[in-house]
Design brief:
With 233 residues, this protein is mainly alpha-helical. It has 15 helices and no strands. The longest helix has 17 residues. The mean pLDDT is 95.
């Protein structure tokens, strides 16, 4: 089969993914809590280069999504068009989430839309585990990649993190923690408020909040993090 190219169809891509997969990789993914029922066993070391070669195409991304395959859905997130995907389409995809790695693979696309803040608020209210995870995975991604976004935007999300820090479900808890850490590492200005919240949570009577706080305090007080932030304006 020829290398991936922009003229490849969803069917071409799925066929290529099948050729790359292996049972050994599927077993390895399962050990990390990845749902493998619809997985070929292809890692991001292959998926990211494929995405770069086939390029952005929202119509094809929707076709990839409808296949239901794990890797095809991650590629849908990597090659979807944030300029044309609709809010309703984002909702539909989020409703299909069944694995943390697919959530994280698609969250970047959602963040690049003009309505990402509305999605964060909406998804955080949603009681479904992977949909709520999406809200905080989006915040973590946005804190790193939206360089032009004012720090005030992220400071404004600290109460949302505090509110959901008591959600003890594994994939929500880890995403809430992830968002708090990334916000705290974004800038010197955000570090103080994020660390203050982390310390407050670390003293909580709630087990999930306490874990989130302690883990975030550990990272936000790491010497390398402090040194890097001291060099920022």
């Amino acid at each position: 089969m020829q290398p991936p190219s922009p003229d490849w169809t969803a069917e071409d891509i799925v066929g290529y993914l099948k050729s790359l997969g292996s049972e050994e990789n599927r077993a390895g993914m399962a050990r990390f809590g990845i749902a493998t029922t619809s997985a070929f066993g292809v890692g991001h070391t292959h998926l990211n280069p494929i995405a770069r070669k086939v390029k952005i195409d929202q119509r094809r991304a929707e076709e990839l999504w409808r296949t239901g395959y794990r890797e095809a859905r991650i590629l849908a997130g990597l090659t979807g068009d944030p300029r044309t995907i609709t809010m309703e389409q984002c909702r539909l995809w989020a409703g299909d989430f069944d694995s943390w790695d697919v959530v994280d693979g698609v969250s970047g696309l959602f963040v690049d839309t003009p309505f990402w803040r509305d999605l964060v608020e909406e998804f955080a209210r949603d009681e479904r585990e992977f949909v709520r995870r999406t809200a905080f995975a989006m915040l973590a991604y946005a804190a790193v990649h939206l360089k032009k976004e004012p720090d005030a935007t992220f400071a404004g999300y600290l109460p949302l993190i505090e509110r959901h820090a008591t959600d003890g479900r594994n994939f929500v808890k880890k995403a809430v923690n992830w968002a708090l850490r990334q916000i705290g590492k974004r800038s010197k200005k955000l570090h103080g408020p994020a660390l203050a919240l982390a310390r407050e949570l670390s003293a909580s009577d709630d087990k999930a909040a306490r874990w989130t706080g302690k883990d975030a305090v550990k990272e936000l007080t790491d010497a390398k993090v402090l040194q890097r932030l001291a060099l920022k304006r």
